[in-house]
Design a protein that fits this description.
The structure holds 2 protein chains of 2 kinds. By secondary structure, chain A is α+β, with helices and mostly antiparallel strands. Chain A has 2 domains: 24-233, Cytochrome Bc1 Complex, Chain A, domain 1; 256-440, Metalloenzyme, LuxS/M16 peptidase-like (Cytochrome Bc1 Complex, Chain A, domain 1), CATH 3.30.830. Helix content of chain A is 45%, strand content 17%. Chain A contains 17 helices and 11 strands. Chain A has a 6-stranded mixed β-sheet, with helices on both faces. In chain A, helix 5 (122-135) packs parallel to helix 10 (222-233), helix 11 (283-294) crosses helix 17 (414-424) and helix 13 crosses helix 17. The radius of gyration of chain A is 23 Å and the shape is globular. Chain B is α+β, with helices and mostly antiparallel strands. Chain B folds into 3 domains: 1-31, no CATH class; 45-239, Metalloenzyme, LuxS/M16 peptidase-like (Cytochrome Bc1 Complex, Chain A, domain 1), CATH 3.30.830; 262-462, Cytochrome Bc1 Complex, Chain A, domain 1, CATH 3.30.830.10. Helix content of chain B is 41%, strand content 19%. A 6-stranded mixed β-sheet of chain B has the order 1-2-8-3-7-6, sandwiched between helices. A 6-stranded mixed β-sheet of chain B has the order 11-12-10-13-9-14, sandwiched between helices. In chain B, strand 6 and strand 7 (116-124) form a beta hairpin. The N and C termini of chain B lie far apart (57 Å). The chains are: A alpha+beta, B alpha+beta. The interface between A and B is large, with 84 and 78 residues.
Amino acid sequence: MDRFLPWLFLMLFAASANAADSLAGSESIESRTLENGLKVIVWPDQDIPNLAWYHWVRAGARNEYPGITGLSHFFEHMMFNGTSKRKPGEFDRIMEANGGANNAYTSSDVTVYTDWVPRSALELNFDLESDRFQNLAFVEEVVNSERGVVYSERRSSVDNQSFRKLHEQVNATAFIAHPYQFPVIGWPSDIENWKMEDLQQYFQTYYAPNNTTLVIVGAVEPKQVFELAEEYFGPISAQPAPEPVRTVEPKQVGQRRLVMHDAAQAPVLAVAFHIPQANHPDTPALSLAMDVLGEGTSSRLHQRLVEQEQLAVGVFSFKDEGFDPGLAWFFVMLPPGGDTQRAEDVLFEELGKVASEAVQASELEKARNIQMANFWRKLATIDGKADLLGTYEVFHGDFNKMLDVPEQLAGVSLEDIKTISSTVFTRSNSTVGVLIPAANEQEAGE
Amino acid sequence: MKRYANWQNSIAAIVLVFLVSASALAGDSIRLPDYQQVELDNGITLILLEKSDVPLVSFSAAVRGGLVSEPADKNGVASLLAELLQKGAGERDAVQFAEAVAAVGGRFNVSANSEFIGLNGEFMSRDSDLMISLLADVLLRPRMDAAEFQKIKTRAIQGIAAMKDADARGLIGTYAEAFVFGKHPYARSSTGSEASLARVSYEDAKNYAASNLVADRLLLVVAGDFKAKAMRKRIEKALGGWKAAGTAIAPLEAAPRVPGGRVLLVDKPGATQTYFWIGNVGVSRSDPDAVAIELVNTLFGGRFTSMLNTALRIESGLTYGARSNLAMRSQPGSVSIASYTATETTIEAVDLALEQLGKVRESGFDAASLQSGKTYRQGTYPMGFETASDLAGQILTLKFYGLPDSKVNDYSSDMDAVTSEKAKQVIARIYPPREEMVFVFIGDSQKIKDLVGVYGEITLMSITDSDWVPGDK
């Protein structure tokens, strides 16, 4: 593959990396910023005759406001629906006919357009992608048809999945000021009602080259990529930088609770805590603490809730890693008739332990090994590399910071885990949501 | 070791990459890297593939049997066993086993599949000794702890309730295959049902393990950063003492297509969306026209711009996705159209899907579409051969179904060779006409029951029923 990976592996054992190692590892990665502000990052990798294309747009649900919630995600759909040069559907038809596949996703922070194409289609991909960033069409009829698609997506991914509904409710309760409270898919009334002008305004502001970053990894040559980028994306004008998101979520001053009734069979418990943003220095310690608690069947929460007390069918956890302070999440999936209060008590007891007593050195080591192995698995594919480069460029301000991951993980102490846990995992910083199956309502005294 | 023999055969070829014009590269094809295959004395088929670009070692293994080997009334015993195998083996109890894997950032997973118990893992190469010893412990020395079995069984039954509260995309195939395959083993679900799991005892799990976990049914592929000679010795030592059954699994008969015009309606009160499945018995993995079938299904319902997704999503906005699926096993599995839509557009969406079925059967695909499908398949194919773990999985599939390496190595030229005549024949053969289709719906019966009767005689059941088929409450 290339010299970078073996080097990283060495770092696993020799955490005292120096600048020379760092240069050696990153030497095949190149980047260039066009005059219009578009930054292009290229990592040549000749392992398979394909390339992964990740185009990051710094726009997501956090850039929305009441009335246009879900617009970022809707926009992701509209980017496939035609330009002044190409009819709706042609983008996909041409890409697939030339051996490529694509997808896209939207989060609270970003919208990312991903293509996986054979190297023979590199220039064609520049043509297709620059066309939609430059000449997107806004046609009433197409917009309305796509509303139906998004509704269907909402019904499958939220409305007909009880734990996703609970996630939406807890998220909207945990934030009282910051736009992270909006569901990425949007509130139903907004999906129905946003206006053509909203779309046009949004496109002009957020899809400007200076608000995006393009990452290409695979069977390419950087020089050629930069030339193509200049040719195809160069003519697109820069725009004034979007207004920053100014609202800072005020400190939570007491636990928030909600109860949700749903036509489900099994109760679910969700607990969310406010945490720092992705690029905060406490992030590595917090992610290791989360893994000690919730990663895999040997983790503390699985052992206690699922194996020892058999209160739950499963438990999973994850955390937001965005531009602004987000949430750390714990979901406990209970059996029908399960005791949500007992599950909540046990969850808080376990979180309290991590906050008050140091975890075992072996637990920290395990969490570190899991994260390093996952990092590693990402680096084994062109897709994973493109994702990592973009993530570090966009959320940490510099793709080179990806190279610091092993060192950062190695630098986390037992004390760091305890300190961050005691700050985050407190009752007054929590929002608790309980889903009660409709069939159980009487028992619950409703 | 190189995978892409038509380019990058040598250092010189790397230079060539930047000299050859793009159009000349359009037909990149791939070759499986060299690997070693040996039969151990006890009948284990072992395949070793060195790939040292990253310091990881992966294994992918299959023990023939799986759901097909379950006693007919004990569906779920294979998945309970798969789970139980990870709950203690050799010197480690359940917690110690999980710790041993996680402590080094490894992955170890056992799952029950239609025709095999699958085992997969990936470890840092420095931990490859540990990986082999864990694998040997699981296969030769599982603890089979009775208390762990009870926990797993209880959790499996409870887990099905949670699955039914989630998006039904993951469930509709289970209901449909149970309905279509009836008494045939392909009717069994990988999890079992609440009712069938309740019938599985600890003794059943032990009996299943004793008759199925045997050396001569194991196919093991190890790929990654190691030296083949040393790895082979290590594996021979670890697994060489394992006993063989000496008897092969009885061959499975093909299930016939079932009569069409029947409707299974699974009632999920309050559902705002209807999930639907239209299908019957399809084709097997070893079908001589497998490449043509793959091409045709890509165009009909296997990619974003497929006929089905174009009609139901892109042009009408009725759904987030519509697909056609082929479950290709050693005998014919199911062929189906599946999608979902708002409750009130159920009939509109199903009729539109059936209209596409009629169109494809009548007109097939034009030359430009066929070419588009071929290039799409050829262009995306290499993405499945990138990592050691990918390669281990690909080789395992070939060996399991007895397919030659040329399936991979000649993939690109085989795809080019599919004629429009062949595509037409294949369409007529694999997609049953509307009147031979079986229909399955999951949705709010109160709102759709009177409507879906147009597709055939309705059999009604509830999502809370304890089985995947009606009548066993």
